[in-house]
Structure formats: C-alpha cells, structure tokens
Amino acid sequence: MKYTIQPDVPAVETINLTRTYEALTALNALDLVVNRGDLFGFIGSNGAGKTTTLRILSTFLSPTAGQARVLGYNVVTQADAVRHIIGYMPDFFGVYRDMIVSEYLDFFGACYQIGANQRVQTINDVLELVGLHEKKDQLIGALSRGMQQRLGLARVLIHDPELLLLDEPASGLDPRARVEMMAILQELQKMGKTIIISSHILSELQALCNRVAIIEKGSLKYSGPIEGVGQDLSSHKVFRVHCGPNPESALPAFLEIPELVNPTILKGRISFTLEDASIDPARILHQLISAGVPIRDFHEEEISLEKVFMNYTSGETQ
Amino acid sequence: MLKCWPVIERGLRIMSRARSTYFSRIGIGVLGIIGTMMMAFFDARSPNLGNNNIGLLMFSFLSMVILTFSIFSGIRYTSDCIAAEKRNGTLGLLFLTDLTTMDILLGKLSANSFRALLNLLATVPVLSFTILYGGVTIEMVLKLSLISVNQLILSLVIGLTASVFQTQSKAAFSTASSIVVGIHFILPFIATLLQKHFSQFVWFTNGYFQAFQIAGMGGPGGNALGAGSWLAFAVTQGFVLGLSLILFRVCIVKLSHSWRNFTNPVESQPARKFRLWPSRSTPKPKPASKSESHQSEASTTQPASGNRFAGNRGGLRLTSSFPLDYLFSRRKPEITSACAMGFLAALYLIILKVTDGFDEPIAGLVGIMLSNLIFKWQWASVVIGAAHRERRDGTLEFLISTPLKLSTIFISLRRAAAYDLRYSIIVQALFQVIMHLIIFVGDSSSKEYHFWTFYCTSYVFLILDIAALIYGGAWLGLTCVNYSNAFTQSIVWIIGMPTFLLYLLIILFSSIQAMPNENDFQMMWLVMGVGWAVLVILFCKAWVTRYIRIIGSIPFGKKLTFKYLEVSRNSIHSPSAPVPSSNPAKLSSQPD
Asked: Which H or E run includes B106?
C-alpha cells in the first residue's frame, strides 16, 4: 500500500509528548520538530529519554499523553502508515543468524510486499550502498558486528522509507566502521532522506548533523541548527595565541591591552577572553604585532558539542 | 496473495538446512519399519493368530505410534517459534513490516505444520501394510488419519500458544507439555469419573476417547474404531478442532498486546537464582541491634555484598537461622519445581488407584521408569545449565581470577547443585518407594521377579545416577562449548541408560510371564530390542559427532586438572600482569 505524504508537513512533530513508566517520567512534555531532509542529532545522557522518543515515533511504544506525528501521520491512530514510511534501527536488534544476507533482505522485502523482481534490484542497490555487496551470499552469523550493523541499515532501507530513525547506529563499531557508517548516512541525506540519529559520540554528530536536540531527564534543553548550538555560550570569545617557545616574555604585552580579560599561559599558549563581541579580533592582533610579540598562531577556540552538552545538562539521570 | 507467505518461506528454508528435519523423518520411518518387521516376525512364529488378527495388531501398534507422535510432536516444532523471535529481538522488526499478527502466527504455524505433516506422512506406506494383512478397513485408516492430523494441529497450536506466552525455550516447551498433559490425560481422567457417576456424559466421553480407543483396542478382536458412528466421530473431531481455533485466537489477542515488550533481544536464559554455596569461612553476621533491626530485615532480601562467596546466596543473607529464613522466603523455585513433580507423581498414583483393571506392577514399574527420566532431565538441566552459565556469562573468568582454588569452584558448583535439587531428589525417592510398595501389594508374585535384588539395585542405581549427574553435570557444564537441550538429553540418556535398561528388562520380564506363549514373546522383544538399540546408536552417533569437541576437551588423566580453567587462569595470571591479592600463597596453589 502506498501512503501519500503531504509536501508541507514536517518529518516529525511532537506536541507535549509524555511517557511515564509508573513513577518514572521518561518523557516530559516534549515539543520537537524535525524538518524534512534534516540529518538530526538526538543527544542526551543514558536514561534521558532518547530511545523512548524513538520508540514512540516508530510505534513501538504508546505515549502516555501528548501526540506525535510522523510525516503528518499520527503514531497512535495511524500506526500502519507510520510503520510503512519509516525505517527504524533499534540500539540492540536481532538478526536471523541462520539466513544468508540476501535472503534476509529478501525476506523483509517480501514482508513489505515489494514485488519479487523489484526486490532483486533493491537488494543489490542497498547492499551496494552499505558496502555489503560482496557478502551477499554469506551467512549472517558469520558476519562481524560492524557488518551486522550495516545489514541492519540495509534492512531499514529495503522499503525506501522517507524517515530513518537510528538509535545508536555506531555503538560497538570500531573507528573505521563508524566513519564508514557516518559516510553512508551523509549519502542517504543527499538522497533526500530525513534521518534522526541518537548517539553518544558527539564529535561525530557535530560533523554530521545539520540540526541537533539535547534532551535531559525527558525534557528538551535545546533544539535547533548545529551552528547555533553554542550561541548562548559564545557571548564571550576565547582566543589562543602561540608566541614561540617562551610565552612568558610575551605575556606583559597582553596584559597591557585593557579589552583582554584574564590572559594566562596554558600549555605553551597564551589564552585570553574577549567579553565584548563587538571588538574586532583583527585589531587586537595588530596591536600585539605592533608590540613586538612573535605571533605564530592566533585563533578563536571553537565551542565543541561536548562543551555545549556539558553546559546544557547537569548529568542527572532518571 | 498470502501475506504470510514470506514467513512460511523463511521457516521452510531454515528447516531445510536443519539436520534434525531429515533425522526425524528417517527416525519415524525406521520406527514404523521395525514395528512392521516385529509384527511380521510375530506372524511367522504364531500361525494360530490368523492374518486378520495380525493386521489388527499391527494397526494397533502403528496407531499408538502415530497418535503419540501427533499429540507430542507438534509442541516440539512450534513451542519455540515465537519465543525465539522474542529472544532474538526480531519480533518487533516483523511487526514494523506490513505483516499483521495473524500473518505472523499463521506463517509460523503453516511452516511448522508442513514439517510435522511430512513426518506423519512417512508412516502412511507402513500403514497400508495393515490393510493388505486384512482385518483393517479403509474406514479405520481414514479415521485414524483424520484424528492424527487433527491432534497434530491441536498440538501445534498448543505449542504456538505456549510460545506466545513464554520467552525462554525451556519454559515454552514445559508450558506446552503441561497443556498437552492437561488436555489428553487430566480431561480424559475427569471424563472417566463423569462417565462412572453420570451416565448422560457417555456421549462426550465416548467421543472424546475416540482417538484413544484406537490405541486401547490393541489385541485381537478389538474393532472400536470401525464400530464408532461417523456422527460421534465428527462431534469429537469438531471439539478438538474448535479447541485449536480458540487457542489460535488467544494467540492472536495475546501477541497483539504483548509484542512491544519484546522489541529488543532478551537474555537467552533467565538469571539463575541460585549461586555458589558460601565458603566455610563465611563469618556469621553480628546480631543486629534494635535500632538496626529494620535494616537487617531489609538485608534479608537484598544481596549482602557483591561477593557471591560472602554469604550471599540467592539474594539472601545467610544467618544462623538460614534454613528457616530460606524456607519462608518467597524465592524458592526448587520447592515449586519439586511440588510440581510431586503433583504429577500424585496424579499418576490417583489414576493408578481409580482406574479399573490397571495392572499395578506394570503401571508401577512404568511410573518409576518415566519419573526417573523426567527427574534426571531436570537434574541434568539444572546442573549443566548452572555450570555452563558461569562460563557463558563470563563470570567464570572472574572466579578463576580470584585466589580461590579451582577445585573449590568446582566443589562449590556441585554443592550448590545438590542443594538446589534436594527437594526434587526427595520427591523422586519417595515416589519410588511408594511405587515399590504398590507393586509389592498389588502383585503377590513379585518375589518371582527377584524382588529384593531388583529393588535394592534400583535404589543403588538412583544414588549413582544422582551422583553422576551432579558430578558429571557440573564438570561438563564448565568444560562444554555449547549447551542446549539436546546436550542435556543426551547426557540423561547416557547416564540414565543402565537404570532405564534395568527397569525395561524387569517390565519385559514381567510381561513375558503374563503372556501365553513365552518363547514367541521373548523373540518378539528381542527383535524390538535390537531395533531400539539400532535407533539409539544412530542418534547417539549424531550427538557424539556434534559434541565431539566437548568430549575431546575433557581432560582424562590421573588428576582431574581442568584444561579450560588452567588455560584461562594462565592467560589471566600472565607474568606481565600479576594478580593483586591479599593472599599470594593461594595463587600458586594448583587444583587438586
């Protein structure tokens, strides 16, 4: 069955989404919007409510209150439609270890009622995409963990879903496999898929996602573009300057400039803060050069996603 | 288009790769052939019986085999089909597709039905011989076929129901077995009582027993099947089919509401509640002061510490009043298990008492033999599973990295197993004693069966079995690579074989004495025994081939030095990584 999708609806929209487990509130009035075509990072500590959200969106779980819509379809009342247009990869998922790779995908393709001829082509395509084409005749039980993760991704893609919900897809993978997995996801985004990915590896999400949401104890702390994630923290800018092997001799020149706050030597570099964002760093650089400081490197410290995450969250779990 | 077809296709594909599919077909065929050969031999030796009676006798034998297969084999095929999906975390993935609950269940049922029906089909050629002999009508064969298929479907659906309600393979099989026993043994028993006291229930009991009349008519002259009306037959079979449909409906409703709970892989076996026996050096806990009394109460239900050797067993702190604490605590599944066994034993005794015309000596001997097998299966399962769990969970490495002696670990495992099984052992021993009394009272000629020799031997064998299972089970559990139900079964057969043979021989010996022509029957049992032995050898070969690695890994020598443990300890205690210990002297100690 083909479900029509309205062009102007967001990929995911949750309104006051709440889920409780007896005394525990796993999700507390979550309002979240994910636009179509986004590669959306979902960040939170263990027990923050990420998996609960993804399970509700994938119809595996019913919300206690509020509602969630996936591409315009309600996850409770229109669960069949939602299941057809999403591809969900849980954090821990099982595979039929006694089947071979192509059989496994063929089985799920048939379950999605894809025609036999089309299935053959689709299986080849998705195996090519996830880099498992050479393993198509191998027994799944003989595949490594990373390969099985890829196979899981291939299964998710077999019915060409509009939205991918990936819960920790890179967990347990070695660094190379993680990089390859992220490259596949970027490729999928280019193909027009909307991807929601939850992960603990924030550096990778920073490089990968265009939007992120930070969640703690079931409540949303931040949701928006990755570029704006550090804006709240960046009212002041931190700079680091490399002044050769002897930074102590250059430190007085920094102390003479009144706009620089707290110039200190840190790991062989001089670090200072500009609290007034309107001050042009180029002018400061010019002043330092004029004062005879042998500057080899002058750069503004980037605010990492880790830093932002640590700032937004208190580390409390439920 | 059948939406469930992919599920059927997958099931058949996987079965086609399983060796057991082919073994079971061959096994059933071989069993049928042996039975036929036996009857043919019997025919040649007893010309006075006549062809018609031989045909009926063969039909009776085959119908027993076919009905037993139909009633019990279905649960074996389906009891793990949904439970396995739950354990593997693949059930949720199926529900994410366009399949409905009905599609999934129907697919699973159909795939397993094909396998079971094919096995059943293997008996048809043998069944046709009975018509050739005469005395058996087409109607009888037709009715038997319909009853068998109907019972098989019921058995398959019972297995499916158990699979929907349970997650673990063993639990699902036990549940399915219990339902089968309930339907096929307890209900008929109630029906018999009803028939005795309320004659208006005759139609029901007659109908219900339609299937069993075939098995029960054994012997020349029996023609209950041929004489039964088609209407009664249709009502009975309609009842059985209706029961299957109701159970299938229950499966659909239950799975629709519960599948979301099993979207992630779950542990293959539930956490074992019984841990190692505490060491002798466990300090006695200090008596709690009044102010601390509520804390000590709480601690009786919480582990005292993370160290399993520090008086923490089954989540209970061991105190001076430990046995009482333990008995009155809620966590004593071994008592539940023993009670269940006791209930079954009691039920058997009641049936033995109530049923008229039951030959007490034979029934008693059969009871002992069956209970022996059941108990041994339970014992082996507990002991091997417990020992293997340490290895599977990776806790064995933790244990051997401690200063404990390897022999201490092994002894602790054995003692824990013996402790866990104490009630079960008592129930079995009591049952055996009662059975012997029944045999003795019920048959004054028991002394002719070498009464004392046999009984004394049977108790010695029981003790030997227990010792072998506990010692050997703990040993095998620690050393075996793979652990499965098949492995446990094979161990039970190997260890329990002498006792089983002892009982079998005495039953045969008793039967021969009751038979009119002793020589003919001796030859008949001889042929059957040879056939049975061939089957056992064939299956043992399969098991031995499968577990050859395990057997190869068992270190036989003057001293019992556990190869696996040694290797693991050496790898952990490598010179580059000395083990921190408060008692280095113990580290250098070698296993006994």
From this structure: helix B101-121
Which residues contact residue A18 at a Cβ distance below 8 angstroms, ignoring those fewer than 6 apart? A25, A27, A28, A29, A30, A63, A64, A65, A66
pLDDT tens for each residue of B412-467: 777 777 777 777 778 778 877 877 777 666 655 544 545 555 666 677 777 777 77
Q: What is the pLDDT of residues B457-469, one digit of tens each?
A: 677 777 777 777 7
A36 and A160 housed in the same domain = yes
Total structural domains within chain A: 2
Say whether both A27 and A128 belong to one domain. yes
Q: Are residues A265 and A128 in the same domain?
A: no
- Chain B residue with the nearest C-alpha to that of A114: B98
| A120 and A268 assigned to the same domain | no
Chain B partners within 8 Å of A92 (Cβ): 89, 264-265
Minimal C-alpha gap between B353 and chain A (Å): 50
Considering only CB atoms, B97 lies closest to which of A91, A99, A108, namely A108
Nearest to B94 among A61, A86, A111 (CB): A111
Q: Give pTM, 2 decimals.
A: 0.64
Contacts of residue A114 in chain B, CB cutoff 8 Å?
Answer: none
| A23 confidence band (pLDDT: 50, 70, 90) | confident
* Tokens at B8, concatenated: 């059927």
The SS3 call for residue A167 is strand
Neighbours of B434 (CB within 10 A): 18
Tell me: do A50 and A188 sit in the same domain.
Answer: yes
Between CA B165 and CA A47 the distance in angstroms is 29
Q: Can you give the residue range of the structural domain that contains A78? A: 12-225
Are residue A192 and residue A252 in the same domain, yes or no?
no
Closest to A237 in 3D by CA, of A253, A261, A218: A261
| Confidence band of B526 (pLDDT split at 50, 70, 90) | low
- pLDDT value of position B160: 93
ipTM of the complex: 0.74
CATH of the domain at A86: 3.40.50.300
- Looking at every residue in chain A, the average pLDDT score rounds to 84
